[in-house]
Amino acid sequence: MRSSIQRKIIALLLAFVIILVFISYAANFLIVKEYYYYQRQNSFEKIYNNINSLAGNSDEISEKVNDRLCSLCEAEGITLLIFSDKDNVRFGYGNESQLRERYEKTLNNHNNNAYSHDILKTTENYTFQKYQETSDDTSYFEMWGKLSDGSSFILRMAAQASSTTGFAYNNRAYFLTTILMITLVILMFYLFSLYFTRPIRNLSDISQKMMDDDFEAKYTGKRRDEIDVLGKNMNELSEKLKNTIAELKSANLELQKDIDKKTQIDEQRKEFLSNVSHELKTPIALIQGYAEGLKEDIYDDAESRDYYCDVIIDESKRMNNIVKKLLSLNQIEFGNYHVVMERFDICQVISGVLNSSMILIKQKNINLSYDCDKSVYVWADEFQIEEVINNFVSNAINHVSGENEIKIDIITDNPEVARINVFNSGNHIPEESLEHLWDKFYKADKARTREYGGSGLGLSIVKAIMESMNQKYGVENVEGGVVFWFELECKN
What we know:
Elements lengths: L4 H51 L7 H14 L2 E5 L5 E5 L2 H13 L6 E8 L3 E8 L5 E8 L5 E7 L5 H48 L14 H70 L6 H32 L8 E4 H11 L1 H6 L3 E4 L6 E4 L1 H18 L5 E7 L5 E9 L5 H4 L11 H7 L5 H11 L4 E6 L2 E9 L3
Parallel strand pairs: 8-10
Antiparallel strand pairs: 1-2, 1-6, 3-4, 4-5, 5-6, 7-9, 10-11, 11-13, 12-13
């Protein structure tokens, strides 16, 4: 990897070493040098003050003062010449002729080609300078000027001092340089740690948010190293976790729906078995009772025996009808029945159903209203639609009352849909029962249903048929009675 952490660490450490070397070099050749000059200047000023206080109070220097001046010159590694005028020397330590020559050169001609000098400080009493002898290439510090009593003086010291004071000055300079370097090192390592720990803390915060199911926080660094790769991987992981958790929640929701559906199916199965058992129990009991009566010859006359036989036949037919409807409903609900879509005239189908039911209509003196003066062609399974119409018409015949009227209408206001309404006069269906009419074995009026032999399966079969063809159906309470309706596609 081009920008790995390892390479960055190596580069940073290398830069750190180079900076330290540069600082050390600068300190030795700049800071130490200037500091050394500064200390030399302070030393010369202190020496000047001491000389001024010792030698400036009398014309002649006493032996005690002479000893003190000698000790001071020896301790500081300097040479000293004090004279009251050009010819009279008051005190001398070192090569007197050389010091006199230096003093004269300094006074007479500062730009003499025999030496070069740098004036470091000048006051009204003295001048402090550094100069270099061209003959032996040796550098010196020197101070020359006037004492408080008017005496002249010159102080002189080798610039590259080998005395203990020179080493002391160097040690002080290096000590200060070391403090500066340590401070810089601490600052550099602090910035270095921030550079690496800030993205790591950011990743830590992101991981904590991920633990709290917050996947919106993203790593946005652009370092192009392992931390950047880790951040991008965490972003991808966050997105995948987000999608996975969403999928799991959806799967859990679907699973809960399946569980609820299974529970509902189990309840429906139990209810179905209970209803089937209840519906078959009565005819089976009747068949068994009347069959036992025939066997035991309870009645000897032929009329009674015929009545017993008729009951057995009627109940057998009723059981057979229930079984057939259950088988038909089962086939439609489980997709075993193949819907055959065809185009046919719905008016002819309705007319056929009414003709087969005309005997019952006349027996109950029902006022039938149905007028279809033109053909209405629809798309559907003709056999199944005939079953739907037959169930609606039978339901209307069995429940008609009041005005004793049944009315069948075909509404084609929408050119693409035909709506078939089957109205029967009579009592309204309770509102709480309307949505349950399509359930298996549901009977809004159980006593009346039993009276005409209903099983509670007809409307369930209607529901299954209409849903298998994706068509609408329903029931409504209207003025004077009830309307059952369904729709079929009729566009060409």
